[in-house]
Amino acid sequence: MSPHTVLDFWFAKANRRCWFRSTPEFDRLIRRRFETLWEGARAGEWDEWASTPEGALALVIVLDQLPLNMFRGQALAFATEAQSRRVADRAIAAGFDQDLADECKAFLYLPFMHSETLADQDRAVALFERAGLVDNLRWALHHRSIVRRFGRFPHRNIVLGRKNTPEESTWLVSEQAFLG
Prior knowledge:
The protein is mostly helical. The protein has 9 helices and no strands. The chain has a single domain, classed as Alpha Horseshoe (Serine Threonine Protein Phosphatase 5, Tetratricopeptide repeat). 36% of the residues are buried.
């Protein structure tokens, strides 16, 4: 397995439609193809990928995006988010994001939007704004407003074993709710 294997799969035209509107079939395909890679990345076995722009991007996708598909509805979906932010942080500090196409850059920045820490949410907004990624910026502002309001993403509460506050319960059944 190489960074290009991940990037070729993730950015394949046929798979793009599933990025934010996945299907059970796509989730199963990702799990079959990449679960072992994710387990290795979680254990730090692929850290050397982070030394190049493409490798860092692939590692961020493995740690941030793929578990959302592989483990949908389970706590494991969020298990490597912090690792993905560390990889993304180092890649941005090295200027790797400047070498990436906009659609790739967006995935390098997404771990900050997935964080339940307001400082990371602020960073996501700043990154998308600076890059001129308007659609991503709209979602970053939305995610930040949720974390600003609740201090976390209420739609994760059940799978993470957290109890909803009354305000979260009301919001989760409202039209404004974001369910991930």
